[in-house]
């Protein structure tokens, strides 16, 4: 086992993911291309604990600097079909960050992103919404394809998901499409109460100022 892999949480017999986060920040801070490559290769490790920790490190690196993990974007797409839920969630988390710097890659793989969005729940669903929204925000072409799809989701999703997903879609909202966004939310806000209502009202106010 290499010195780098020995820093993974599993190999330190840790139940928390702090060692993985520390490793990710260290690799990102040093732009350690060789180290990142080793972690990326071990996302395919036969030991599910090691491959899970390596995925964790990779998406934490993506959060710090997505450019460092773009060489492995194809791997993340492949992991969307993993039988392990944590690998799927990690992959879409990384892709949501990559969308900020390489939206053209995500746009080429819309069918994969949409499929994950349609079959997922919880954090995996949330991150798929973020990935689609970041891609939509890149330019008018991508927005013309993706923004109506995102609005349709807001119009039909479970009412408790509306504030979270509306917030994640905000990066795709601009001065030209904000009216459709606001109209869609106003049609559903009556379903909400308490903190959910307040949160959605705040999102609407932010959109109005764009």
Give the topology, please.
Layout: H1 18-29, H2 33-41, H3 48-64, H4 73-79, H5 85-98, H6 103-108, H7 110-119, H8 122-136, H9 140-156, H10 162-169, H11 178-188, H12 194-208
Helix pairs in contact: 1-3, 3-5, 4-5, 5-8, 7-8, 8-9, 8-10, 10-12, 11-12
CATH class of the largest domain: Mainly Alpha
Report the CATH architecture of the largest domain.
Alpha Horseshoe
Rg on CA atoms, Å: 18 Å
Task: Encode the helix/strand succession as letters.
Answer: HHHHHHHHHHHH
Unreliable stretches = none
Mean pLDDT: 96
Total domain modules: 2
CATH topology of the largest domain: Leucine-rich Repeat Variant
Beta-strand percentage range: under 5%
| Major sheet size, sense and barrel closure | none
Helix content: 55-70%
Give the quaternary arrangement of the chains: single chain
| End-to-end gap | 52 Å
Shape: elongated
Strand element count: 0
Question: Could you explain how this protein is built, in words?
Answer:
This protein has 210 residues and is mainly α. It has 2 domains: 1-138, Leucine-rich Repeat Variant; 143-210, no CATH class. Helix content is 67%, strand content 0%. The protein has helices at residues 18-29, 33-41, 48-64, 73-79, 85-98, 103-108, 110-119, 122-136, 140-156, 162-169, 178-188, 194-208.
